[in-house]
Description:
Blueprint: E1 3-7, H1 10-22, E2 27-31, E3 44-48, H2 56-72, E4 77-81, H3 94-105, E5 110-113, E6 121-124, E7 127-130, E8 133-134, H4 153-160, E9 165-168, H5 170-174, H6 177-189, E10 194-197, H7 202-211, E11 217-220, H8 228-231, E12 251-255, H9 260-270, E13 275-277, H10 280-285, H11 290-298, E14 307-309, H12 314-324, H13 326-346, E15 351-355, H14 357-367, E16 371-379, E17 382-387, E18 393-397, H15 406-414
Parallel strand pairs: 1-3, 1-4, 2-3, 4-11, 5-10, 5-11, 9-10, 12-14, 12-15, 13-14, 15-18
Antiparallel strand pairs: 2-16, 6-7, 7-8, 16-17, 17-18
Amino acid sequence: MLLGCIGDDFTGSSDLGNTLAIGGMRVVQYCGLPASDADPAVEAGIVALKSRTVAPAEAVGQSLAAADWLLAQGCRQIFFKICSTFDSRRDGNIGLVIDALMARLGASLSIVCPAFPDNGRSVYQGHLFVGDRLLSESSMRHHPLTPMSDSDIRRWLGHQSRQAVGHVAMPDVRGGADAIRAALKREATAGRPVVVVDAIANADLVEIGRAASDLLLLTGGSGLALGLPGNFGIGPATQSSSWWTGSSGPAVVLSGSCSAMTRLQVSVFANSHPAFEVIPADILSGKLVPDTVVNWFAGQTPGVAPLIYSSAEPRVVEAVQAEYGIERTALAIEAFFAALASQLAASGIERIVVAGGETSGAVVEGLGIASLEIGPQIAPGVPAVRASGRPLWLALKSGNFGDESFFEKALTTLAGGCID
């Protein structure tokens, strides 16, 4: 194994797998810490954790365990995959995980770049943008678990890391890999070993990747991986996912994301498919159990993919959180979808589309999937995936990814169809 990756959630890990597979690497996404060694043919291994919102000490422990396993597989470089919208509270765990990984690897310098231009995420002057809006002015300000109220990634990391945070600005990035290396060296010499790097285009990320060829640790969104396969002498795939056949078996769409794009996708899909809205308060009060939804699902027309969703507007989510607590609400919804997915799979479901990072993690854990094979891209940042050794085909989507018709496109791709 050449490149070892640690994802702080399952959808982001699939996103990274998509980028690396397109770049020509043989990729496997492991769902949690593997119990045995990897296949020697794997060039990039991604250990997908569900650590984004856990306490820093727990996230550090999980991440170090993943790093140790990856290093034991022979990895030369570790990539800590975070969300392209950063998705970490002021007292979140990203900074401390970076600190711990640097210490474990003996790294004196690390870069941080969440940019993903293909999905409108860019970093300029150390600030993260979503489209033409600062992150703090986007819908991420109202994220139910990781509200982002500050767009300055340097300042946000400064709240979390015990190390000083530096910055490489756009003029150095546009100077190419050599200029970036020189700027990184200046920051390290000045005592700022954790360095946020600007990027507004894919070409910037490729140059950053080239400049980082000798670094032991990188932190960022999947865009930062664009230039990494070339560092290992690997070129873009010429027959990407040629093995993919998909399945036309029974399907379901599960949505636990409350993002603006997912709510639009839910609205569009529900116009032409049976839909069941899961009310969080009903779960928390014990009024609604998975069996109820499974029985409803069984009564739907065969061959039609029903939608089961809990994707409320921010004000509704805030009201439930105020009554039951943020953590209790999140855990209850995740446990519900995990149990539901397990029961649906037992009934014969073969295709599952999931919206939401935390929901995707819960579903994969509920299904007991050990690893995922990366298939064709459905949308930027979202590949189709197949459970290794099992008749399960999935799409795991971060909340704001995809266009309004994403669910239909995902189902088509999982069935082996073409969406081009």
